[in-house]
Write a structure and sequence with these properties.
With 267 residues, the protein is α/β, with parallel strands linked by helices. It has one domain: LigB-like (Protocatechuate 4,5-dioxygenase, Chain B, 3-Layer(aba) Sandwich), CATH 3.40.830. Helices cover 32% and strands 21% of the residues. It is built from 10 helices and 12 strands. The strands form 4 sheets. It has a 6-stranded mixed beta sheet with strand order 7-2-8-1-12-9, sandwiched between helices. The longest helix has 16 residues. Keywords: Dioxygenase, Metal-binding, Oxidoreductase, Zinc. Belongs to the DODA-type extradiol aromatic ring-opening dioxygenase family. Its cofactor is Zn(2+). GO terms for molecular function: stizolobate synthase activity. InterPro entries: Extradiol_dOase_DODA, Xdiol_dOase_suB.
């Protein structure tokens, strides 16, 4: 019997995380070798939005997408040539149901995918399928799709949501170097809801919830969280890690499963 793989949500933040000295990068590099090695990885990325169906990458080795501008040349030289996972593609389609998933050769691994996996599994030798966020669906529908995909974890597949709990680029420059009260409030509420598996608190926000409005903002960075939450299995423990905030950006991340490594001493 295959041991269930963990599910993760990773706050990926700026591409600079990958090439600068910071505790978030150090932790992901430390964590990767301590996780069970999956047969394949499904990554739901904030940086690929579609409308009407979730798209999944296709082709032997999907291209590396440098979906950012004005960064150091070192970042544009980075490539993540992980192979495709045809069996996983077919299984995603089967579990999701007719018409809910579309194969797409036009996309590839954006930095929401390779920016996380390059730190966890730098050799790029594990097959990967990236999946878009279907913006035609509401939060509950994303959670329901994630629950449909949860059996993958028992089939050797690691599910990784990649985004940010607090993500508001319009406010980022004016709040850098601080921890705004609204961001801290929202982060703490979401942490509590994730640990408690409180789906309502993760998907329903009132119209006058100013902290949620500022944190979730355009929502594409928040919705991948629901794929890790929805893939939670009975008996899973939850570990919160990289729980930092810089202005309007949180790197808060979660690990679901029976593997909960302790945070290293150097952060």
């Amino acid at each position: 019997m295959t041991k269930s793989m963990p599910a993760l949500f990773v706050g990926h933040g700026s591409p600079m995380t990958m090439i600068t000295e910071n505790p978030e990068r150090r932790y992901l590099e430390w964590l990767g070798p301590r996780l069970p090695r999956p047969e394949a990885i499904l990554t739901v990325t904030a940086h690929w939005e579609t409308n009407g169906a979730a798209h999944i990458t296709d082709g032997d080795h999907p291209r590396t997408i440098h979906d950012f501008r004005g960064f150091p040349e070192e970042l544009y030289r980075k490539h993540y040539a992980a192979p495709n996972a045809p069996a996983l593609q077919a299984r995603i389609e089967e579990l999701a149901g007719p018409g809910r998933v579309v194969r797409d050769t036009s996309w590839g691994f954006d930095h929401g995918v390779w920016g996380v996996l390059a730190m966890l599994y730098p050799d790029a030798d594990i097959p990967v399928v990236a999946m878009s966020v279907d913006r035609a669906m509401g939060a509950e529908a994303h959670l329901e799709l994630a629950q449909r995909l949860a059996p993958l974890r028992g089939e050797g597949v690691m599910i990784v949501g990649s985004g940010n709990i607090v993500h508001n680029l319009a406010l980022y420059r004016s709040t850098m170097g601080t921890v705004p009260e609204w961001a801290d409030d929202f982060r703490n509420r979401i942490n509590a809801a994730v640990v408690a598996n409180d789906h309502a608190a993760l998907t329903r926000f009132s119209a006058d919830d100013k902290a949620a409005a500022a944190a979730i903002n355009s929502a594409e960075h928040y919705l991948p969280l629901l794929y890790a939450v929805g893939a939670r299995l009975p008996g899973d423990e939850v570990a919160v890690f990289n729980d930092s905030i810089d202005g309007a950006l949180s790197m808060t991340s979660y690990l679901f499963g029976d593997v909960t490594p302790a945070k290293p001493q150097d952060g």
